[in-house]
# Entry
Amino acid sequence: MSQFLFRAALLALMCLTGSPALSNTFTIAAAADLRFALDEIIEAFRDHHPQYQVRVVYGSSGKMTTQILNGAPYDLFFSADISFPERLHAAGMTASDPAVYALGRIVLWSNSLDASSLSLADLATDTRIRRIAIAQPAHAPYGQRAREALQAAGVWDAVQPKLVFGENIAHAAQMVESGAANVGIIALSLALFPRLAEHRYHLIDEQLHQPLTQGFVVTRRGANRPGVQAFSEFMAGEQAHTIMRRFGFAMPDADRPGRTD
# Structure
């Protein structure tokens, strides 16, 4: 998106969200790995809190961090890596301390090959694999973890000519779905969505990359907004946790006792 178009979209969203008629409306910026899980959580939240209207924008955590720093009117930010909410907090752009809400995983996934029988080493040697989709490591945590896993497996240099980059992890999955790539390293949460779950995946050893410690924060704009507080509390509740677990996320306290990352 060009700088002009971004500023125009930002102005339009600020005008909408500033309207008194929309005082019960709040906007969430969320990492793309949450697309299916968070949509379901928002529907459940609306059942309990019909007075609130929730908007959600999905994208890469790095780009959304930049948008918030530039004044984008998001009230809550759910990142795929807690380092981005921590960056906003350090910049004075938040109304809460960053908090971990989930731990993510990456997988090999394909809709044309049996990914469950593949390894990271196969990405370099299997002649059927001509294109490999990952999220852009420059601004997407899932892309960063994919790069780390490929490096740890010793195949990063060999697969670089095959790599194609999605703007975020959902875009990387779409590239595999469309046939633009033969296989992708995508979020487990996306591979478990019913449409994608028709095809098997290979869970990548989490020892090959840094943890996907996913964090959220209330932005300065979201301070003292009852809907934002209600959603934050709902996200920490068992109904939301049940949905998150079904999409392959681990809850940092209940599911990973003793882990501090």
Observations:
- The two ends are 34 Å apart (CA to CA).
